[in-house]
Amino acid sequence: MHAHNKHKEIYVILRGSGQFQFDNEVFDLSEGTLIRVNPAGSRTYRNSSDEPMIFMCIQTMAGSIDCYFGKDGFKSEGVIAWEK
After folding, report:
1. To the nearest 5 percent, what fractions of the chain are helix, strand and coil?
2. Sign of CA dihedral 14, 38, 45, 26
3. What tens digit of pLDDT does each residue of 44-73 get?
4. Cα–Cα distance list, 69 to 22, 48, 72, 74 (Å)
5. Of 19, 27, 64, 80, which has the fewest CB atoms closer than 10 Å, so is most exposed?
6. Sequence spans of domains, the chain
7. pLDDT at 43 over 70
């Protein structure tokens, strides 16, 4: 089990299967599963099969985005290559 002070995590299961535990809840994992975990709470994961489980874990500081994409994005100039 582990937890974080400031970082949230996103787990992406790329291959294989397993289980994920958050506090006392256990979830099954399979290819394509996405899990987002806030800093609070303990978590762990395991491979429950004979095949390798391959996953990606992305960490970022919780609350680090100060606005939503709709407010931050804007139209820019440029030519879209596939529209030529």
Report:
1. 10, 45, 50
2. negative
3. 999 989 999 999 999 988 877 766 666 777
4. 29, 38, 5, 9
5. 80
6. 1-64
7. yes
Euclidean distance between CA atoms 52 and 54, whole angstroms = 6
Q: What is 1-64's CATH superfamily?
A: Jelly Rolls (2.60.120.10)
Tokens read off for 24: 């006392």
For residue 56 the two structure tokens come to 């990606």
Q: Which residues contact 11 (CB under 8 A, 6 or more apart)?
A: 20, 33, 34, 35, 37, 45, 55, 56, 57
